[in-house]
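Escalation from tier 1.

The customer reports that the assembly of two entities below gives different structure tokens on two consecutive runs. Tier 1 could not reproduce it. I'm attaching the input and our single run for tier 2 to review.
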Amino acid sequence: MHIRFEQVVPRYLEEEKVKRSEIWNKTIDIAPGEHLHIVAPSGSGKTSLMHFLYGLRSDYSGRILFDNQDIKAFDAEQVAANRTRRTSVIFQDLRLFPNHTVWQNIEVKRVLEPYHEAETIKEMAGHLGIAGKLEKPLHTCSYGEQQRIAIIRALQQPFELLLMDEPFSHLDEANRQKAMNLMAGEARKRNATLVLADLKKIDYFDADRIIHL
Amino acid sequence: MHKTNGKQYTKVKFKDIAAFLDRSGNRSSRWFSYAGLSIGVLLLLCAVQMYINISDLLRDKNPRKNGYDFISVTKTVTNETMGRDNRFTEQDVEEIRRQPFIQGAAPLIANQFRAKASAGNIIPFSTDLFLEAIQEDFIDTVPEGFNWKAGQQDLPIIFSSDYLEMYNVFAPSQGLPQLSGETLGSINIIVECHGPLGKQMYRGHIVALTDRINSILVPESFLRWANKAYGESEQEPFARVYIKTEDANNPDLLSFLEQKNYHVNKDKTKFGRIKQVLQAVVSGLGLFAVLVILLAMMLFSFYLQLMIARSRENLQLLLTLGYSPAWLSQTVSRRWIPAYTIIIASALIAASMVQWGFHYFSLDGRTSMSAFLHPVVWLLALLIWVLCILINTRMIRKLLYKIR
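Tier 1 run:
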């Protein structure tokens, strides 16, 4: 999927921050399969950018184009189809169902457009060290465990673009590496574009390009 | 971008998301709405079926000419109107003709001169007479030869069967012979017409008896001529008007007659009055049923709103994950299709039993009325079912789009 930013500016962002940014109010192209690393300090609009790309918010000027189509023009059903088949996300705030089990949290995403068999959930959970948590209610999991659950959930669908908003903030070094490898491997299988936004540069993310927001 | 619709997710089923909907709360309002809907639908179906039954049962079954009823209409004479002219003008007749439930109206023209009748030497009687005429298609028995041309001495008469019956009642006490209908035809009646220029005699003979019109009828051509020749004016108002209608019990006809203060034979329209009252009662019941259904639907909408409000965060997250709002609303609303189907099917079965019971127990199965529900009632049930599902789907869709 080819992504293009055309003079995108969040409506609420201070002019000073817009001027300093390498994305806001610029024209940027992201090639299919590119690994883009966005490094941004807190409050620079990193999460907003992820939400714009995922179609959660549209309070910006300018245009974001997916294969030359303005994503603001998508109707509710097109947005849903995009989220099911083309764009996956790991939210900074995770957005999990707190009162359901870990398995339910992942399975509800997988059944929507299954890319993997249900068994794969167990394999991934084992790989990230949360296999024993699958049948437990989500609220019994630590934030770090929940982060890994959100990562596994994001990998259950087909995607051409994977958005990651500070996906490792609560993970230890070993788990960060494992999670990164898992995501990179899954992206390779799909030849997908990766956009990873974080407060500082993440060394083990094999980025084709780094942009400062 | 691939455009999707509600059929997008062939693999996802309601059970996959059922755990994310909080359906526990306010069960009583759901069951109350089901009960209300059942009662409302049953009442409505029964009311419509009863309306149809009443129309069928109280349709005038009297022998009718070409499927029409003929009713004599006069103006009601009351103490207030007694001194006035209570006859119909041409305008009155025109107004009657214009009514959609009246297929024709004809005034009875009366003689405007003095007429006398005697039977010569056979039956020794002589009496002043009134003659009337009406257009032929309003008379039930019009034999060939019921016409008159200027200069003709023979005068054909159509005589009321009721008058013959009355004559036969008092004839013996007056020393007169009782007469059969056939004998009556053979009697020569001398009809004397008195005018300013003297009197003229005609040979009257009864050519037919009529059950419909209580009068002594002569050809219209004769009376129009005679009124001109012996009377002072031909264009006099009419005391009686006959109306031709498809249904003498049509409530609209009765309302019109009542409103105009016209008098009709109550016997002709008595079923109409009963029908009017019964249909009003049944219509009231139908309206009440519609109200009950609306209230039940409102109660159900409160239940849905509450369910969606309780599941708001989960639904929002499902939409964020990529669940289509169209698919969600269709899938969630489809959960209630079995409930609606059961409710409406039960109401149909109960209404069928009521109709069957009405036919066999109240009417003893004797009438031609069907023991089964009328097709209109089935169609109505289908319509309610479709409406319930549509309203439900739209309501859920609206609520989901609101939280998106």
